[in-house]
Amino acid sequence: MPARSTRTDLLDTAERLIAEQGLAGVSVREVIRAAGQRNNGAVNYYFGSWHALLIELWSRRTTGDALGRELYAAAADAPDRLAALVEAYVRPFVSEVAERSPSYWARFNEQWLAGIRSDFVASPQPLVADDPAYPTIPGLDGLKQLLTDIANELDHLPVGDRPARAALAARFVVSALASWERDRVAGVWRDLDAFATELCTLMLALLRAGSADKRSSQVLRDASGSVG
Predict the structure, then answer these.
(1) Which helix (H) or strand (E) covers residue 111, if one does?
(2) Which of 7, 72, 108, 187 shows its CA 20 to 30 Å from the CA of 150?
(3) What is the pTM of this model?
(4) pLDDT tens, position by position, 31-66
(5) Which intervals hold domain HTH tetR-type (predicted)?
(6) Phi-psi region at 106: left, alpha or beta (left = phi > 0; alpha = psi -120 to 50)
(7) Phi and psi based region of residue 116 (left: phi greater than 0; alpha: psi -120 to 50; beta: remaining)
(8) Beta strands in 36-123 (DSSP E)
(9) Which backbone phi and psi does 24 adopt, to 5 degrees?
(10) Which residues contact 94 (CB under 8 A, 6 or more apart)?
(11) Using CA atoms, how far apart are residues 98 and 102, in angstroms rounded to an integer?
(12) How far is it, in rounded angstroms, from Cα 165 to Cα 34?
């Protein structure tokens, strides 16, 4: 087995600590110490800055890229385009989680999304936080377009509600996979392939659910009709 590099140790340690404690709960010095480095300037030496380390954390995740491009392209001609787009979101993410054992990637994403506005698909700069602690991550245009395409397929919802529903569904998948990672550490995980299939089914059901406003109105009508 080839020797691990200091860069890899710092990246892996940062991902794990952020996954466990959140971005705001981790200091650069803590990452350096946990990675076994004595030089307090190790992050600056190897990456140039803390933000540059975070950007590289995102950019090194390429296992799902080819699969994502393939599934996204196939969705253009799929009989059920929304279902195909859901597969294009879930399957590459799962492939990244499967890449390492233990995996911290879903938990890292969960912590990252904690600092992003809830309706991030509708944001002028999706997946970019207002918090200066979050750097702008390059190379996410494909993911942004995928989530926008998913929102555009939700023609059963009012136009203004579609991006929020897509964002909610995406967060559901991230949190579910983060729970899978925690379960795996505890030794009670489910088969990841079967779990991925279930995630696709549930995400699709969430996206296709009717408008909350319409359901609330129906409940009120039913309640008023039963009085007297």
Answers:
(1) helix 105-113
(2) 108
(3) 0.88
(4) 999 999 999 999 999 999 999 999 999 998 888 899
(5) 10-57
(6) alpha
(7) beta
(8) none
(9) -75, -15
(10) 64, 177, 192, 195, 196, 199
(11) 9
(12) 39
